[in-house]
Write a structure and sequence with these properties.
Length: 581
């Protein structure tokens, strides 16, 4: 191999790895919602977990990425270690898809239709379609589809460049001797593990092996141990990602390593035994691209068949290797490992935001109840809930900003922006809960009380606020457009109630039915309750924005009011329901 052939090899390898990376990221974005639905089907059922891992890896074309994702799930408490084991096993099978795609390059026939199946025949067409979609289509999904096609074309051109660059090595004695050396199974395993650990992708290392096989110097006897070693080398990514994670996440990474090491040791022993006892002629034959794909798939399926029934024992093994500490570890709410898979990271953000929403609404409802009956225990719960919503807003805001810097689809970008807006409103609702609590404490400490008419009026207003809280919470949690549309008319009614109650209070002051000091507390109560309804209106507006595919809160709220018949009907209904005598 001269210098120029070596440069072609480096260029081909670079194109191959780049194409695989681009295609995987575009597939991930394009299949974002499907990826989320797949992950929602994860259950304790081992076969469901196995199929989920297989499907996710087939979509994103990387068992390493899937395993890192699994480590993040376990670290966040989204997945048990048992579920992780099954998903990792499925990921090992799913990663073999790439080898089958690359094996199409080995098709050789004079038949026109068979020739069309060769990547060199259809890749230029895919590249043309891809570049047209990427450059001239404005729709993000079409752009991602174009990137998938361009990534695949780049990958295949890189594969062909590597094969062409190493074609001459078939006549080089030193190259033949190197692969004769790999006939030693242990050396083959070490070589495969080392290469895969360096490039951190078993799919890519199998592709490199297939390119070398085009020289005709790679026998099945050398290829099979190398393939076994590649499965061990790919574990390095998960091991590195588990650094700094909790013990369960470290166990998940160790499951990946243990699974591949045990599978390799067992089947390598079987391979050596067969080779020694029977010396099959197949092991001395030159490996084909299709043959390597078959060997890769068969090995991973056999490993899974061996260890799937032993998943409980595998779990016990890693729990012994990574024992429990003296103090229980808390799960990470938002694991940064999930940022490598933005659709999944966004789904986790939505779950944490849902917890925040429930916490905030519960705090506000507790603060309403404390106005009627003050207890120190309830006051403590309200303040703890407000502290928790502050924590949620901090971690969610930071995480969503990091997520927004990633290359994500337009729909996911809008969803992230919506969540950033909404968490601010839920945090403010919790702040108003504490403000209401402080008013209740002032009444309690100064032994003041509101007049009977004021208590009755406050009951009407808090009833309306309780309903608008429920509507906005349902709109957010269930993505309920109809519930969101009912918020604005009720918010208008609450605005009117606030002014009416303030006027009524002035009239009571004039009649000396209420004290001026109690009047200050009354004013604070009305202001905080009315502002809660404003935040509920913002939340509902964001939900409507997402349904209409835009981010213009004022326009969405104006559109609700412009539907005069529906708005007027709902407004009148709420006005009657929350009328004050």
């Amino acid at each position: 191999m001269d210098l120029f052939q070596f440069l072609n090899l480096i260029g081909g390898l670079s194109l191959f790895l780049f194409g695989m990376n681009v295609m995987g990221q575009a597939l991930e974005r394009r299949a974002g919602s499907k990826l989320r639905s797949l992950l929602e089907k994860m259950t304790t059922n081992k076969f469901a977990g196995l199929l989920t891992g297989l499907a996710v890896t087939a979509v994103i074309q990387s068992s390493s990425a899937t395993t890192v994702m699994v480590v993040g799930f376990v670290n966040s408490g989204l997945m048990t270690l048992r579920q992780a084991i099954h998903m990792i096993m499925g990921a090992n099978i799913g990663t073999t898809v790439t080898a089958w795609i690359l094996s199409l390059a080995g098709i050789s026939s004079g038949n026109f239709f068979v020739q069309l199946l060769k990547p060199s025949s259809f890749t230029p067409v895919l590249a043309l379609i891809g570049i047209v979609q990427y450059m001239f289509c404005k729709n993000d999904k079409k752009k991602d589809t174009g990137l998938i096609l361009l990534g695949f074309a780049t990958l295949m051109y890189g594969m062909e460049s590597m094969s062409a660059a190493v074609a001459g090595l078939g006549q080089v004695p030193a190259f033949r001797q190197m692969f004769l050396m790999f006939q030693n199974p242990v050396l083959g395993v070490l070589a495969g593990a080392s290469l895969t650990a360096i490039i951190q992708s078993s799919s890519a290392s199998v592709g490199i092996l297939q390119a070398l096989a085009a020289t005709g110097q790679v026998t099945y006897g050398a290829a099979v141990p190398i393939i076994m070693g590649q499965n061990i080398g790919t574990c390095i990514t998960a091991i590195l990602s588990s650094i700094g994670a909790n013990k369960n996440a470290k166990r998940a990474a160790l499951v990946h390593l243990s699974f591949n090491v045990i599978g390799t040791v067992v089947w390598l022993c079987v391979f050596c035994l067969v080779k020694w006892l029977f010396s099959p002629a197949l092991l001395g034959e030159s490996a084909t691209l299709m043959g390597i794909a078959v060997a890769h798939s068969l090995f991973n399926v056999l490993c899974t068949a061996l260890l799937l029934p032993l998943s409980r024992q595998l779990e016990s093994l890693v729990c012994r290797l990574v024992p429990e500490g003296k103090k229980p570890e808390a799960a990470s709410e938002l694991d940064e490992r999930l940022l490598t898979t933005p659709p999944v990271a966004l789904e986790q953000c939505k779950k944490v935001a849902a917890e925040m929403a429930n916490c905030s609404v519960t705090a506000l409802r507790q603060s309403i109840s404390v106005l009627n009956r003050y207890t120190p225990e309830l006051a403590k719960q309200i303040r703890a809930a407000e502290d928790l919503t502050d924590h949620y807003e901090d971690i969610l805001g930071t995480y969503l900003v990091k997520l927004s810097t990633r290359r994500i689809s337009a729909a996911d970008s809008n969803e992230a922006a919506r969540l950033l807006k909404i968490i601010g409103d839920f945090e403010r609702i919790a702040d108003h809960a504490v403000n209401l609590l402080q008013s209740a404490e002032e009444l309690h400490e100064k032994k003041m009380s509101l007049s009977k008419p004021a208590v009755k009026e406050l009951g009407v207003l808090t009833g309306a606020v309780d309903e608008i809280l429920g509507l906005s919470l349902d709109a957010f949690l269930k993505d309920d457009y109809s519930a969101a549309g009912m918020v604005e008319p009720l918010e208008q009614v609450i605005d009117g109630l606030k002014e009416q109650l303030r006027t009524n209070h002035i009239l009571r002051l004039q009649k000396e039915q209420c004290s001026i000091e109690a009047g200050f507390v009354w004013s604070d109560l009305l202001t905080n309750l009315e502002r809660v309804s404003d935040h509920c209106s913002n939340i509902a507006g964001c939900v409507m924005d997402m349904h209409e595919g835009k981010l213009n809160l004022h326009e969405s709220l104006r559109a609700v009011k412009e539907d005069r018949e529906k708005f007027a009907g709902r407004f009148e209904q709420y006005q009657k329901k929350y009328a004050v005598q």
